Amino acid sequence: MEIRHLISIEDVSAEWFTSLYSICRDMIDHPGDFSGICNGKLMASLFFEPSTRTNFSFQSAMMRLGGNVFGFSDPSATSRAKGESLADTIRMCAAYADTIVIRSPLEGAAKAASLYSAIPIINAGDGGHMHPTQTLTDLTTICQRRGEIRGFNIGLCGDLKNGRTVHSLAIALSKFPDIRFTLISPRDLAMPEYLLTYLKDHGQNYVEVTNLEAAMPHLDVLYMTRVQRERFADPLEYERLKNVYILTAKKLERAKKELLVMHPLPRCEEIAMDVDADPRAVYFDQARYGMFIRMALLLKMTHMARETPPPTASHKGSQRCKNPACVTGQELYLPILEKTNGENISCAYCDGKLLTI
Amino acid sequence: MEIRHLISIEDVSAEWFTSLYSICRDMIDHPGDFSGICNGKLMASLFFEPSTRTNFSFQSAMMRLGGNVFGFSDPSATSRAKGESLADTIRMCAAYADTIVIRSPLEGAAKAASLYSAIPIINAGDGGHMHPTQTLTDLTTICQRRGEIRGFNIGLCGDLKNGRTVHSLAIALSKFPDIRFTLISPRDLAMPEYLLTYLKDHGQNYVEVTNLEAAMPHLDVLYMTRVQRERFADPLEYERLKNVYILTAKKLERAKKELLVMHPLPRCEEIAMDVDADPRAVYFDQARYGMFIRMALLLKMTHMARETPPPTASHKGSQRCKNPACVTGQELYLPILEKTNGENISCAYCDGKLLTI
Amino acid sequence: MEIRHLISIEDVSAEWFTSLYSICRDMIDHPGDFSGICNGKLMASLFFEPSTRTNFSFQSAMMRLGGNVFGFSDPSATSRAKGESLADTIRMCAAYADTIVIRSPLEGAAKAASLYSAIPIINAGDGGHMHPTQTLTDLTTICQRRGEIRGFNIGLCGDLKNGRTVHSLAIALSKFPDIRFTLISPRDLAMPEYLLTYLKDHGQNYVEVTNLEAAMPHLDVLYMTRVQRERFADPLEYERLKNVYILTAKKLERAKKELLVMHPLPRCEEIAMDVDADPRAVYFDQARYGMFIRMALLLKMTHMARETPPPTASHKGSQRCKNPACVTGQELYLPILEKTNGENISCAYCDGKLLTI
């Protein structure tokens, strides 16, 4: 199945990823073959909140293909671009570019953008909702270092309750065969129930543990994330626990020789600097693979034909999304769109609950 | 006549535009033929005030030709660049680039820049004075959609008193044959006397009306601009009038089938969203044509030979421009230059009145 | 000797410069031959403090070679990039780019960056410490205008006590044969003792004078820098002296016909505008030569193989640099590195004194 806009990791099948990765691998092996393949092509980079790392990764990916980039990268740009609707900003940029990369604090912003765009939209993070190219980066790192994604014991460690990155990665890995998840977190920051159900429904096994060191010997991948002080109701609890979830060279002693230590970066204290020299620490290589998989994605996205989107009725209904961070709360003309998942009806922008008013 | 610097729409003849447009049309039809034509060429983009849309249009134009862009885009850059004169900033950028695009809140800034530049200057807006590439965009849209500019009834609607865009467009269209203008505005915001005289002197017809709906059936082009609350002495008058000048799908019912609805963007409430789906609404296409005509312009401008400007005497005279927004009030070394138009003598930077002191 | 990172002007030999300059001259004479030579190559431009001029020079240099640039250019970016160490920021950018240009208010920042980078680092100014590409620019200007660097009487004028630019230039010129320095400054702002010793040790002659006009007839090069009010303990002394160090057309009357008047720019009042039209005023050409020598440098730097740096022990010692502006005071994990110069031991980052604590 072809994907016109990359909005959610749920749109991505194992097959689609595998075909994207095969382009990516080619780019890693023969970078010179691709340095002019996007000559004359443009990416609009609309960062309604700053994210230096993601921004640099997309920019460098586009530029390495011979294409170029315009856009804005800081929050003050928001007010600047204001006075006009998101819909009009998107239509303007679609007049100038071949693909639009959008980052926004509003959940569902990328989906909203896709309704008004004649060119492909790529979601570079919409609030706490989705960040699909981070997940593509993670999958690429595993493929590139281990040859495939199959039969691995994947340790997800840290704040599994709030972490957008680990949620998306768990969903994506569920589409590959025979994955076992080791979910390592404080009890208060455990993986949400709906995601555990998702794993079960997709036939994957998981165990929930609280001790990183005990889990270590069994892992093929250890995906570290940060445990933030402000997530704890009780500060003493934070002080008691934080060291358990800090990775050190010492804790790696009992790990497998082929373990991959991954991290979305920037890392703070959750990985000690003495881990950096360990060949199993692949988080900086991971950043580099992220550039290459984005190159493959941008190659696809900038070579699709322009397509004027069908007219969209403005919002006139009596329904509303309850999520205060949803884009529909800011861009009031947006039509309310539903998404049915079994018996649940949710907002097709942010996956929040819908409310009839 | 060749134009070395594009400072004012008054410099542009119908012949020059027509030759520029023919390159532009070629670029629209065969974009691939031009994707490397500015390889190794650079545009300096000096925005002393933010203007996301104009900035993006110029950047994407230059990049689509295979050239590249450096510069600054926000007002804090002004203070940053400060400590040195505009003249020196221009000379520095002329050392690095092949053409300079300048946007400034100071009227006459582009003209001032041209005195010190070894490379072509393009005016991307100098305060309320001129914005010639917007006018080129407007002319291109009419040509591209109607094949030529001749014999049309052009409706200019909104604030015709203060609108830089409609003033420039009226002047430019006056150079084409058999144009009829329908000037649609509140009485308080009517087209200035000197422009009406200009139209008459150039043999063009016009009517002044206050009702958009009544004028609609006769128009070939409807150019919408905003009516801003702060322009009215009496707020009640604004409330009474504003809806008259809002374009809706309903008001379009009696319009010609080939009408072009144009707008410089960003639009606020002056065009209702229900107009967007109408095939006569060409304002988003207009943005795209703006990129293509800027591509044609940049191709010309980046291929002129470098030419050290003749030495400029610093200001030592007893004359001064009375316009407080004129660049000569800030950059005190600028020589005072006069422009004679019939019996009027005006400032050659900003067209303001000169004062002997 | 090949240079992997360009950190300090002291790393630069006359031979290395001469070979770099010969590429530069080729680029000046045949710019078209080089417009695609860096296709697909990327420069990361990390400006932790604003410097429009240096930034534009590097950007335009890279772009003219067909390469491209990403990065940040203003101080707010510092806080943005914060939350992570300089080491990690560098490792991230090294994942995306082929060379890194770094500007920082911290002395030794470029040296620190080089410890963690798989790609070449170029120092674009680290506080008051070094700015080696400015010096390359200055040498290039002399070569390009006078054919070689040999046997000239070089006047350095202005604040010779605090001026990083003149210090570096003096060091660099000391490596060329038969240079005579004329050091023109107020007594309070004379060249530091250690630099005078350096000149003597390298067999160069110098005289110290206080009067620019008297020195004028003997000079082959006059390098102007600013005398800042805030450098004077006594404001009356400043008022008395400042005009002595302002260059005017009048003062140039007795100068040699082939004199080169140089300035690092931006100039303030230290060069009167009436000098600009004199053919001996080469400061704007100097800016242009700066772009070309940076092109030559970037061509070299972007074509070196990636090389993972050896692991660096974190700082655990009991030694510290006494310089409050040294990067080691901010990035606390940095190993303390010593540099021995005769009997002096100094900090290998900032050349400051080391303190055992």
State the CATH topology of the largest domain in chain A.
Rossmann fold
Major sheet: arrangement of strands of chain A? 7-6-5-8-9
Mean pLDDT of chain A: 92
Q: What shape does the CA trace of chain A take? A: globular
Second-tier CATH architecture of the largest domain in chain A:
3-Layer(aba) Sandwich
Rg over C-alpha atoms of chain A, rounded to the nearest angstrom: 21 Å
CATH homologous group name of the largest domain in chain A? Aspartate/ornithine carbamoyltransferase
Number of strands of chain A: 13
Q: Which oligomeric form is depicted?
A: homotrimer
Strand content of chain A: 15-25%
User: What series of H and E elements makes up the topology of chain A?
Assistant: HEHEHHEHEHEHEHEHEHEHEEEE
* Domain tally of chain A: 3
The helix-and-strand class of chain A reads alpha/beta
Number of helices of chain A: 11
Helix content of chain A: 25-40%
